[in-house]
């Protein structure tokens, strides 16, 4: 088994005992692969989160809460985010970064984000499944209470390889998990007959969100055409439109816009480029001067140590 503290493609293996069901009357072992979470775009919660691979298709939050409670006790599991939970009703685009960069100064940023979140929630169509299944070999991210909890979980998984006392899937879960099988399919058929008014409201909300995002994308495109970057280059766009971006590109654009805004705030004292160059030259000169002074002190200490003669 790979080292438990590895963060690359090396995973620890969590064996889970799958109880027999009507379609398969034997106990099986399902292996979930776990490692520390290391996304491409780092977040503040990476140190207390775990990346899970090959989760069972019928996974729910209560299932994993029971598993982690069995491993390290109650109170350390916070939540779990499944791979398909990140899909929004309307694709996220880089235009949202404009609000973080200062376009929505007239109103508080929190109020704007809350209204947008509520608007996007209203744009979702009603659920027609009482319980979501996941595709084979799906992934998830578990958020724990702290970094110590992550270490305890990894140590508990290592002990399972010796004790062979694997946690049982679905044991001690709360009763709010909907059962599968014929009741699940019957509920789906019933929910497919959705209320016409609800569908109409969700459709109108969807297009309201879509039009707002198109407007924000146009504003961002206009700004990119007119504003040079730190190297003096201007982004070239075609037709005043910004192509749709996936979530990774949107988060990357958001991060760059925030960094750019913070950098502008720190450089308000030196408005012109030549002032920036002069300040950087001065900082380099000060750094070199301190280095030479430290070097002289070290040489002086060496000479002093060489002249020292202990009494005999």
UniProtKB/TrEMBL annotation:
Highest taxon of the lineage: Eukaryota
Domain Rrp7 RRM-like N-terminal residue range list: 11-177
Concerning Pfam families, the annotation shows: RRM_Rrp7, RRP7
Entry's Gene Ontology cellular component terms: CURI complex; UTP-C complex
Q: Where in this chain does the record put each Ribosomal RNA-processing protein 7 C-terminal domain?
A: 191-311
Please provide the Gene Ontology terms (biological process) for this protein.
ribosomal small subunit assembly; rRNA processing
The record's similarity note reads: Belongs to the RRP7 family.
Protein name listed in UniProt: Ribosomal RNA-processing protein 7 C-terminal domain-containing protein
- What is the native source organism of this protein? Hypocrea atroviridis (strain ATCC 20476 / IMI 206040) (Trichoderma atroviride)
């Amino acid at each position: 088994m790979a080292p438990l503290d590895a963060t690359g493609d090396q995973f620890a293996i969590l064996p889970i005992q799958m109880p027999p069901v009507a379609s398969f009357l034997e106990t099986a072992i399902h292996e979930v692969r776990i490692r520390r979470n290391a996304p491409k775009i780092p977040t503040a919660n990476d140190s207390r989160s775990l990346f899970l691979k090959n989760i069972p298709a019928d996974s729910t939050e209560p299932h994993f809460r029971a598993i982690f409670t069995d491993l390290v006790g109650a109170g350390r599991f916070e939540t779990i985010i499944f791979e398909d939970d990140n899909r929004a009703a309307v694709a996220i685009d880089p235009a949202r970064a404009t609000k973080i960069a200062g376009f929505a100064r007239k109103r508080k940023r929190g109020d704007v984000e809350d209204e947008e979140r509520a608007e996007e929630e209203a744009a979702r169509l009603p659920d027609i499944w009482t319980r979501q299944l996941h595709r084979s070999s799906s992934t998830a991210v578990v958020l724990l209470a702290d970094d110590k909890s992550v270490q305890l979980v990894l140590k508990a998984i290592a002990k399972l390889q010796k004790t062979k006392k694997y946690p049982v899937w679905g044991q001690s879960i709360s009763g709010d998990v909907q059962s599968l099988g014929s009741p699940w399919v019957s509920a789906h058929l019933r929910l497919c007959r959705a209320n016409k008014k609800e569908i109409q409201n969700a459709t109108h909300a969807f297009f309201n969100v879509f039009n707002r995002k198109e407007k924000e994308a146009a504003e961002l495109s206009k700004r990119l055409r007119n504003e040079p970057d730190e190297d003096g280059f201007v982004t070239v766009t075609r037709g005043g439109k910004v192509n749709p971006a996936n979530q990774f590109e949107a988060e990357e654009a958001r991060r760059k816009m925030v960094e750019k805004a913070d950098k502008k705030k720190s450089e308000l004292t030196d408005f012109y480029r030549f002032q920036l160059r002069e300040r950087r030259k001065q900082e380099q000169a000060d750094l070199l001067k301190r280095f030479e002074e430290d070097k002289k002190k070290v040489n002086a200490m060496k000479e002093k140590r060489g002249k020292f003669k202990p009494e005999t």
